[in-house]
Amino acid sequence: MDNRILGLHHITAIANSAQRNYDFYTRVLGLRLVKKTVNFDDPGTYHFYYGNEEGTPGTILTFFPWEGIGPGKNGVGMATEIGYSVPVGSLDSWAERFRETGVVTGERAERFGARYLPFKDPDGLAISLIEHPDSRPAWETEAVQQAMATRGFHSITLTLQTVDATARILTDLFGYELQAQDGNRYRFGTDAIDTASIVDLLEEPKGPIGRNAAGTNHHVAFRVANEAIQMALRDKILSQGLSITPKIDRDYFFSLYFREPGGVLFEIATDNPGFTVDEPLSALGSSLRLPKQYEASRVHIEKTLPVLTTT
């Protein structure tokens, strides 16, 4: 497999209510809950992973649902819009579904030749459905079937005061290239993979600084095939004078974290070992899985976490 960055691995955001978050992403958007666990640093908070059947890298949207945290604010120094790939011609079906379910949407428009429908989740997280030919298998529900179901990420947008330093991270370290520009939006892509491969940089020199809380993105994770490639990339990042964490075992992948020059928290995550390491494929997301260090406290943690109704 290619020894470069393979596009997006996952995106992590913040929510205000575990139940509302679960209901929206599984029942309205039609994603699969592939893992129900807890925040490594705050075991009294869930960590939800949504994706396709297997939780394939490039399809995984994760949430820290901190109960009652209140709304955040999108702004400079943040990932500000998630793009999901949907079948060409499916936006009418999505617009109707969103009308029926009371989802706030914007006007349909076109960006770099692709039609898209912007909307917000119950906490105000900005997402767009983008029509794009995509052969990835979709998770199908009774309400959201193959003809309209999301295929995984199309892109992520980062809002920055200036794009130059972040662009150099993408091109010099991650192997991306500038593909197009439209006003203050710069589109970067990689040919290492043909899905979840786009990063848009939005330059807003006078834009307000964002604030992380519900309805905002916490970090963006980029994908590598294995730990050897990950650690070689770590050396390159260190050589640029940037601070980066040691390798961290997140049970389902190994992670490195660093803050790119524009302020966005980046993660480098491996494909291995995947979400079936502690649950069979057929049962993904069906039970609470705990990091090993918290297993002895399971009874207390289960009493602390909000009750989640999944039926």
Describe the structure.
- The protein has 311 residues and is of the alpha+beta class.
- It contains 5 helices and 17 strands.
- Strands 5, 6, 7, 8, 9, 10, 11, 12 and 13 form a 9-stranded mixed sheet that branches. It has an 8-stranded mixed sheet with strand order 2-3-4-1-14-17-16-15.
- The longest helix has 13 residues.
- The radius of gyration is 18 Å and the shape is globular.
- The N and C termini lie far apart (39 Å).
Cα-to-Cα separation, first versus last residue: 39 Å
* Averaged pLDDT: 97
Measured by DSSP, the beta-strand proportion falls in 35-45%
Shape designation: globular
Put simply, the count of helices is 5
Instruction: Indicate the low-confidence ranges by residue numbers.
Output: none
Helix proportion range: 10-25%
**Radius of gyration, taken over Cα atoms and rounded to an integer in Å:** 18 Å
Structural class: alpha+beta
Total strands: the figure is 17
Largest sheet data: 9 strands, mixed
Q: What's the helix-strand series? A: EHEEEEHEEEEEHEEEEHEEEH
